[in-house]
Amino acid sequence: MGYGYQGKILEVDLTTRKISQREVREEEVKKYFLGSGLSARILSQEADLSLDPFDPKNPLIFMAGLLTGTMVPTACKLSVCSKSPLTGIWNEATVGGHWPAQFKFTGYDGIIVKGKAGKPVYLFLDDGKCEIRDAESVWGKDTFQTNDALKKQTDERALVASIGQAGENLSKIASIVCDGMNARNAARGGNGAVMGSKNLKAIVVKGKKRLEIKDWEGLRELLKEEIPVIKEKGKGLSEFGTAGGAVAVEAFGDLPIKNWQHGSWEEGIKRISGERMRETIWVRHYHCYSCPIGCAKIVKGDGKYGRFYGHYPEYETVGMLGANCLNDDLELLAYVNELCNRFGLDSISTGNTLAFAMECYEKGKITKRDTGGLEIKWGDPNTMITLINQIAKREGFGGEYLADGPVWAAKRMGRGTMEFVSQTKGFDYPAHDPRGHFSMALSYATAVRGACHLEGLTYFLDRGLKIEDFGYTEPPDQFKEEDKPGIVYNLQNFLSVYNPLGICKFLMGRAEPSQIARWVSRVTGFEMDKEKLLKVGERLFNLKRLYDIRLGISGKDDVLPKRLLTAKPDGKAKGRVPDLGKMLPQYYRLRGWDEKGIPKEERLRDLDLVL
Q1: How far apart are CA 12 and CA 113, in angstroms?
Q2: Strand partners, 307
Q3: pLDDT tens across 235-275, in order?
């Protein structure tokens, strides 16, 4: 056991039902941290990358962050890592709430799951003891039902991470849902389907093995001064949640509208914004473990579409199942959000998929003859509810064509429909439009898991957030390319330590890299400063890039889709198109990569990595 971490990883082979442990060495933790960092080391060096993601031998890793479970602000995260069934390359899906800290309190930093059970099972971790238990009684149930049933079977104080029907049916956009109706999701990239392919319904955790901190008093003194500042800077998130920024997103020309075709939806976004939710269906605030901000909200309603009670729609859901589908009905949005949480579906990919189907129908690529009589219309309640049910259950038109997301849907459908899909490296886009923030164009093109906004979050700077350690004190011009390679390089390196440390990315702009380095030092006793922290981040970004390179990824894949290189007709970003050709060469030089996007040997030596 080290300071801040338990020093053990559980290994479970569901085929043989063998359960073992491995030690986490201090030198590994210093080099990779935990979370998606150590997971990348394990998968890169130990896994057979030629395996299909659904092959029983393909590992699925649950790894808590290095600081998770400590009193560091927002230290609540865990990463689920595997080869993605959606894209076939690197995937990490990160989740907060309370499950990750409780998992770490069982005495383990991570679990490596291999094999496939002969029938549905769940894992029960209780203070260091792990049992493989029968899950046939909850197979076929949604995540809320599974949560309640397994707490009754184990302990009401236990916490549950489970898949719903989407994961059971191997939907490539299936998520893993933690904490029941609070619904914190490890959503993107289809790891819920990898879990389903192993007949693993859930992991239930209960523990009390608290973590040791090297300099508890020193950390406490730091946080006494810093937490009030973080709270003050996070007031908007505390009051209105992530959807509180939706109106501003639209004003910046950043909102996906009608399957990424339009640039303005001013009145529509107001009707489904965080402010509107706060006035109508909001019930209470919800804080993840050790979080002083509390951006999550619980909402409740019993309207014309059905009853909902649980986690409110985050901004990404507002963007994708709201604006992108031309749905400005707040009750419908909350209801379909709950359907996604219950079924275990990534709401981002689900929104992209529905918008894709709506455009296909509008433009005559599909008809009622294809859909079994279903009329697919923009923002239509029957369309959205029916298709989400079909996707999760693999039934009807939605099950046949749409259940694996828009990229796979277009491949199956043909008829020139791929032009309606916004994707990079097989990963469909989250709700931030690179035509509204040119830095995001470069960040999306080069992100490790495909079109991922969380690997850079560069649009934060355009909105006025400051990072003084980098000298970013004034908003850059959102539509100029010249300074973007340096911004993307720096922020990707910085953001690359968040998941491995287990801290929330809403700390960006609210805590400097030097502050986070001090937290790591106080918790672990490691000598850490800003430069060493960013060096770890750069090492991990390149390690994951190397994983992708072994699967055929290179500079040829660092691109944006045609749709997002076509100017918007209206809104602030009207007529604006980013020029990757201006940005990529400079970015590659900063990274120490060659013209094909491959890391050069000298840079790998500097980062203590090997190709």
Answers
A1: 5
A2: 302
A3: 999 999 999 999 999 999 999 999 999 999 999 999 999 99
Given a contact cutoff of 8 angstroms between Cβ atoms, the answer to whether 483 and 495 are in contact is no
Can you identify the CATH homologous superfamily of domain 8-206?
Answer: Aldehyde ferredoxin oxidoreductase, N-terminal domain (3.60.9.10)
Domain 219-421 falls under CATH 1.10.569.10: yes
Asked whether the CA dihedral 254, 255, 259, 262 is positive or negative, the reply is negative
Contact (Cβ atoms closer than 8 angstroms) between residue 542 and residue 245: no
pTM above 0.70, yes or no: yes
Burial of 284 (0-12, 13-18, 19+ CB in 10 A): exposed
First to last CA, the chain: 31
Beta bridge partners of 467: 472
Residues ≥6 apart with Cβ < 8 Å to 364: none
Contact 84, 407 (CB under 8 A): no
Of the candidates 361, 373, 377, the one whose C-alpha atom is nearest the C-alpha of residue 413 is: 361
Domain ranges of the chain: 8-206, 219-421, 438-606
Q: Which CATH number fits domain 438-606: 3.30.160.270, 2.60.40.1730, 1.10.599.10, 3.40.190.10?
A: 1.10.599.10
Report the distance separating Cα 177 and Cα 142, nearest Å: 10
Q: Which tokens belong to 317?
A: 């859901």
CB within 8 Å of 170: residues ≥ 6 apart:
54, 85, 193, 196, 197
Q: Encode 313-327: b = buried (16+ Cβ within 10 Å), e = exposed.
A: bbbbbbbbbbbbbbb
φ/ψ bin of 554: left (φ > 0), alpha (ψ from -120 to 50), beta (otherwise): beta
Report helix, strand or coil for 307: strand
Residue pair 260/422 in contact (Cβ under 8 Å)? The answer is yes
Using 50, 70 and 90 to split pLDDT, how confident is the model at 610?
confident
Find all residues with CB under 8 Å of 402, minimum gap 6, and list them: 353, 354, 356, 357, 387, 390, 391, 409
* Residues forming a β-bridge with 79: 63, 94
* Strand, coil or helix: 167: helix
Helix axis angle for 347-362 and 381-393, nearest 10°, is: 120
CA pair distance 59, 296, nearest whole angstrom: 31
How far is the C-alpha of 8 from the C-alpha of 63, rounded, in Å?
A: 11
SS3 state at 11: strand
* CB half-sphere exposure, 521, CA atoms < 13 A: 14
CATH topology match: 8-206 vs 219-421: no
**C-alpha span between 244 and 512 (Å, rounded):** 23
Q: pLDDT band for 1, please (50, 70, 90 cuts).
A: confident
Pairing of strands 8-13, 110-114: parallel
Q: How far is CA 49 from the centre of its chain?
A: 22
Q: What is the DSSP string of 178-196?
A: ESGGG-EEE-TTSHHHHHH
Residues 187, 337, 173, 315, CA torsion sign: negative
